[in-house]
Design a protein that fits this description.
Length: 73
């Protein structure tokens, strides 16, 4: 059925109408990203400025290290 399902509306079919949960997204950190002065990146601590020295040291591509059979234990 391509990921779709049918329910009976107004009858609380399979309990789908029993409860509703929603949230209001917090986009206050996005204002920092839209600032043209600094470059920001995501981390486990949220959106933080990227140091200028980080541009000089790009991230190494490690796909071959992981995908190669000799790298496996």
């Amino acid at each position: 059925m391509n990921g779709f399902f049918k329910i009976v509306r107004g009858k609380n079919n399979v309990g789908i109408e029993a409860d509703c949960a929603f949230m209001v997204p917090d986009i206050s950190d996005e204002e920092l990203v839209l600032d043209d002065k600094s470059i920001y990146g995501g981390s486990i601590f949220g959106i933080v400025p990227i140091k200028a020295s980080a541009k000089d040291h790009p991230i190494k591509d490690t796909t071959e290290d992981i995908a190669s059979p000799r790298a496996r234990f």
